[in-house]
Amino acid sequence: MNKEWKIFGWLAGIFLVAYFLPLGNPNVSNAIYEAFRLLQWYARQHTLACVVPAMFIAGGIATFLSHASVIRYLGPKANRVLAYAVASVAGFILAVCSCSVLPMFAGIYTMGAGLGPASAFLYSGPAINVMAIFLSARVLGFEIGLARVIGSIGFAFVIGLIMAAVFRRSETKRNETAMLLPEPPQSRRKLWQTTLFFTAMILFLVFSDWYNTNDVTITLKDGAVISANIRYTVKDAFDIQEYDAQAKLLPDVRRLSKTDIVEIKPVPSFTMTVHHVKWHLAGLMGIAVLLMTWKWFSRDEVKEWMQATWDFAKMIVPLLFGGVFITGFIGALIPEKYVASLVGGNSISSNLVASVIGAMWYFATLTEIPITETLMRLGMGKGPALALLLAGPALSIPSMLVIYKIIGFKKTAVFVLLVVVMSTITGLIFGAWVK
Predict the structure, then answer these.
(1) What's the number of domains the chain is made of?
(2) Has residue 402 been placed in a domain?
(3) Are residues 170 and 53 in the same domain?
(4) Which of 247, 349, 409, 415 lies 20 to 30 Å (CA to CA) from residue 222?
(5) Helix, strand, coil shares of the chain as percentages rounded to 5?
(6) How far apart are the C-alpha atoms of 264 and 217, rounded to whole Å?
(7) How far is 366 from 145, CA to CA, in rounded Å?
(8) Beta bridge partners of 241
(9) pLDDT tens digits, one per residue of 207-265
(10) In the structure, what pLDDT confidence band is assigned to residue 181 with cuts at 50, 70 and 90?
(11) Residue 31 lies in a domain
(12) What is this structure's pTM?
């Protein structure tokens, strides 16, 4: 009966939105367009390169990793230091956003990982990203970059420990039930084979979603050579931000016409080098996964893997797409200048607003940096900027919907509250320290 009420609620909600939505209002019409535009961008740029590989990894975790192994390393009786250390630094390997980490979180939690280590992984996956840390320091300043890496690792530990303590009783019952399940049959593969298989899948995910920094050198017709970051392009012009002698972006955006430019060259760097060959590297990892699947896995195991992947997709993808659409709709109704006016200075309210906005907005991998940089140019304080960076990548409306589906309302509410409150307090302290 409860399922029928949920169906009725969805139908009634869709009806009420369709009936009362003021389509004649230009702002609402534009918000709907922006929502579909964001959803299209997400589908084209992010789904196939990041979400789909993450689904296969989650399906593989649920199918090929033994329940005993997950319990041993991430379960409630595992070595706490090891479990939380592994979960808290996962983001150094996984350069993914808050949505893409969800299938892997669902996989390890379903297999019996404790809520504490799983929550630490859920936060750290999108928050602790090597490229994000270095780019934050370069674009927003060394202090913010350093504070972000320290805060992200600390948050993962603290959030995991608090989640485990708050829900200790319900987690004990869940683990007792899990321990009664029959032990799966012995794996046909050796540990090194399973490790190599998952490493190849993770590397495919990392390379396929590798970020392009857009750093270039531009030679003008008057002979000047500019080191810049391309912010926007239109048909006949580029909006750029120039770097100063200390390799920090200047605050003003400059527009160049194509008639002013002789040559544009990417700035040589490790990030750009990998970006140029990312599909070759991802292709090699994909071929390696296919070969290992063919050699080491039976047909029945592959079928079970595909079924687990499909089950995760049915649970997660509709919520992700719906959440991205809602985020685009709301974001279009709230102009950047209005947001910046709410997060100026370093008051409790400005840090809280920055944390809440960060938790609600959807940030693809590394996009939080140019957005934060833009808001800082419009008047955002350094404390709220850090609060946004700590809360933003780890949460979003789409991720909240999926987390609720996996662990329930109470645990989701506590997780979100911890991220927002800790980001607010950290931003307030940081803002007072770096005046």
Answers:
(1) 2
(2) yes
(3) yes
(4) 247
(5) 70, 10, 20
(6) 6
(7) 13
(8) 229
(9) 887 776 677 787 877 777 777 777 667 667 777 777 776 666 676 777 777 777 777 77
(10) low
(11) yes
(12) 0.70
